[in-house]
Specification:
- By secondary structure, the chain is mostly helical.
- The protein has a domain at 27-110.
- It is built from 5 helices and no strands.
- The protein has helices spanning 27-47, 50-75, 88-100, 105-108, 113-142.
- It is elongated and about 90 Å long.
- 13% of the residues are buried.
Length: 143
């Protein structure tokens, strides 16, 4: 050890674990993409032009699908899982993974704090929707 206090500290960089670079897009960018696609769809529907509405719908579908592919890469999942985007019951689970899971989830297998908050909100919303549907169905039968 050097006695000079002005020498910079040294570290053995060979022992540090390399940080993986997953690429893709992050959770916030993906959520923004979903929001822009929804707002574009709402805006063109309000205009009432069917051809424009169809074109924006197709463009939004392609953009969101590409976002899912890049987000799955960021999570560390295989990009072939993006094909579940076209299977109606499973696309909800896929979108949940894309919104809640942090970068590199494949390696850590743990949700961070924003992921836990998002997961809680999504579960509460789904349970509330199911309760509303069941209550509405029982009210419709009684009339």
């Amino acid at each position: 050890m050097d006695a000079n206090p002005y020498n910079p500290p040294s570290a053995d960089l060979e022992q540090q674990r390399p940080v993986a670079n997953y690429g893709g897009i992050g959770r916030l960018t993906f959520t923004g993409l979903i929001a822009v696609a929804c707002l574009a769809q709402i805006g063109t529907t309000a205009l009432g032009v069917d051809a424009l509405n169809t074109a924006v719908s197709i463009l939004a579908l392609v953009a969101v699908f590409a976002g899912v592919v890049y987000r799955l890469r960021n999570i560390g999942s295989n990009r072939f899982w993006s094909l579940l985007f076209f299977v109606p019951p499973l696309n909800v689970a896929l979108m949940f993974r894309c919104i809640a899971f942090p970068e590199g989830y494949r390696d850590t297998r743990a949700l961070d704090t924003p992921g836990k908050i998002i997961a809680t909100v999504v579960v509460v919303l789904i349970l509330g929707l199911l309760a509303y549907i069941l209550d509405y169905d029982s009210m419709a039968r009684s009339v």
